[in-house]
Amino acid sequence: MAAELHLRIVTPDRTVVDRKVADVSFTGIDGGYGILPQHAPLLTVIAFTGYAHVTETDGKATDLFLSDGFAQVQDNVLTLVCEAGEAAADIDMARVKAAEAKARAKMAGLDKLSQEYLNAEASLRKALARELLSRRTTGSGNLSS
What we know:
By secondary structure, the protein is α+β, with helices and mostly antiparallel strands. It contains two helices and seven strands, in the order E-E-E-E-E-E-E-H-H.
């Protein structure tokens, strides 16, 4: 049997993933990480909005949206604790488009140095990251629709 890594992705409201995988890559605040079985202990911040690329034990690859959190590797377990996380296949494009429109509308009437503007901008980045990941994994490259 090939070496396996236990992946656990948790958000405040649910456990997104809790299973054995072959490897995981994601972007930390200080660069990209590739986590293989028996990786050395690690603790890092997950880049503000991004995704994890997971290679399953059968070789199949999946992508998951991640937002704001941290990653810990210890005892062959990678735990990603995130504000939000979901499989690319589960991304609801109607919800993403609504969040994008809401964030853009809110930003239009605010001072660019205000905290409200920065919060709306962060919401917009999350919506766009979800859209990009969903379109990339479905092969729907047209971002104008």
